[in-house]
Amino acid sequence: MTAPDLSARYGTARQRRALPQWFWYALALVAVLVGGAFVFWVQADSSDEPTGRDVGFTLTSADEVSVTFEVSKRAEDTAVCAVKALNTSGAPVGWKEVAIGPYADENGNGISVQTVQFRVLGEATTATVDSCWKVN
């Protein structure tokens, strides 16, 4: 069969009409708005939550560890941070919750450095801040 016979038998393919230019502008605008709303949502959701950052740790004895960490929070908030010590396999061998009351440095920021000592049940190879949360 030749090409004219096939087109007579089955018909020709319909040509797709190009989308209008305004459609692409509207699609770009919607994408920018959705992206901006997502960034705003992420920033607004996490801005009030306190965060902890590890500074260092020291094994003071076989059954005690000292952890130094930095807490960032709003100056008027009270936060609690959970600090944990881990052994070589990553299992927790010590845990302590530390309350940090309202605090502001000379610039009015709620950033403070905390050092806490706590007992461990076994040999610890690392210690870290697990999480921080705001107290109501």
Write structural notes for this entry:
The chain is an alpha+beta fold and 136 residues long. The protein has two domains: 20-48; 51-134, Immunoglobulin-like. It contains two helices and six strands. A three-stranded antiparallel β-sheet has the order 1-2-5, with no helix packed on it. A hairpin with a 2-residue loop joins β1 (51-61) and β2 (64-73). The protein starts with a helix and ends with a strand. The mean pLDDT is 90.
Helix and strand arrangement:
Elements lengths: L2 H8 L10 H26 L4 E11 L2 E10 L5 E8 L5 E9 L9 E10 L6 E9 L2
Antiparallel strand pairs: 1-2, 2-5, 3-4, 3-6
Task: Going across the biggest sheet, name each strand in turn.
Answer: 1-2-5
Global Rg = 30 Å
The secondary-structure class comes to alpha+beta
CATH class of the largest domain: Mainly Beta
**Poorly predicted segments:** none
How does the overall form come out from the CA principal axes? elongated
Which second-level CATH architecture of the largest domain applies? Sandwich
Q: How many distinct folded domains?
A: 2
Q: End-to-end distance, in Å?
A: 81 Å
